[in-house]
Amino acid sequence: MRAATATIHLDAIRHNLTRVRQLAPGSRVVAVVKANGYGHGAARILPALSGADALGVACIEEALALREAGACLPVLLLEGVFEAEELPLCARHGFQIAVHEPGQLAMLEQARLERPLVVWLKLDSGMHRLGFPPERVRQAWQRLQAAASVAEVRLMSHFASADDPDDPQTAAQLEVWRAALDGIPGARSLANSAGVLAWPSAHHDWVRPGVMLYGVSPMKDRTGPDDGLRPAMTLATRLIAVQRLQRGEKVGYSGTFVCPEDMDIGIAAIGYGDGYPRHAGSGTPVLVNGRAAALAGRVSMDMLAIDLRRVPGAKVGDPVVLWGAGLPVERIAAAAGTIGYELLCAVKPRVRFVVEE
């Protein structure tokens, strides 16, 4: 059996949810599990999220998959519905929906549903991605209040730069949020993971943690352990070869790594065909036998090469950790010029997934 394995640690997700509760003790929690639980497997991690108050997904397909997997919590569609035909399904399954543009509002006004929906009216407070502009949000709220298909209207927005506490955009968004919603009743939700960690004034009635549930810090230049989080995924494999090379010999495609001395190179059974980033270059950290090592040369589809000079005696069959406990995914993301979110979501189906309590 091929050694590439992603181990999902449910105890880590439980810990991270508890950390959210500690940081925002007065708020209810929408645990965001979109994109298949950020690559961890939404169905796999449901047992670890039973302590949340609701689940958040991008679309109705993800919501239906959660129900099929046995999820009983309320499910919020963060992008709302795309077609009017989705609304009866939302009513049947008790889904809650975001409303962020006039077409969705009109669908609700025209719908005749078996039971009314909880609706989250989205304000564009400055990210300019989704939401009603401040000058139109009050009218949208009034129309939702009058719609027979709406049971309750809640209010939400989304931060653009909360990961950087020095960026003035977050304070500006908070001011837009306060001014636009002044006098409008309804439960409020503004804080994503970065908002939970760094902006307690934005916690309000509901928080919507995503990546922090999986042990990754959204904060600039920080890792999950820095913020009291535990990695929920360990991506690992094993060495399948060890080569003794001479100084000046080249390694891998195009020979981009040249041995600076006589040295051992290990070959690990994982590559971009498994979701490991091809653009991770020489020097990207890995762990071999729990000891620090580094990539050597280009990542191949099924394999990658490792500089073993700091791991003397390494041999075929030895374990290799690509990210997880002791090696936060944020470090690999920084070396590859991306973010931890992308790496977690990119792990491919041919990697064997294992769940640990």
Describe this structure in words.
The protein is an alpha/beta fold and 357 residues long. It contains 11 helices and 18 strands. Helix 6 packs parallel to helix 7, helix 7 packs across helix 8 and helix 10 crosses helix 11. The protein is elongated, with a radius of gyration of 23 Å. The two termini are 23 Å apart.
Order of helices and strands: EHEHHEHEHEHEHEHEHEEEEEEEEEHHE
- Report the count of strand segments: 18
- What is the spatial order of strands in the main beta sheet? 2-3-4-5-6-7-8-9
End-to-end separation: 23 Å
Mean pLDDT: 97
For the largest beta-sheet, the strand count, sense and barrel status come to:
8 strands, parallel, barrel
> Nearest-angstrom radius of gyration?
23 Å
Low-pLDDT windows of residues: none
Number of helices: 11
What's the shape?
elongated
Helix content: 25-40%
Please report which band the strand proportion falls in: under 5%, 5-15%, 15-25%, 25-35%, 35-45% or over 45%.
15-25%
- Secondary structure class reads alpha/beta
Oligomeric category = single chain
Structure in a nutshell:
The protein contains 11 helices and 18 strands. It has 357 residues and is α/β, with parallel strands linked by helices.
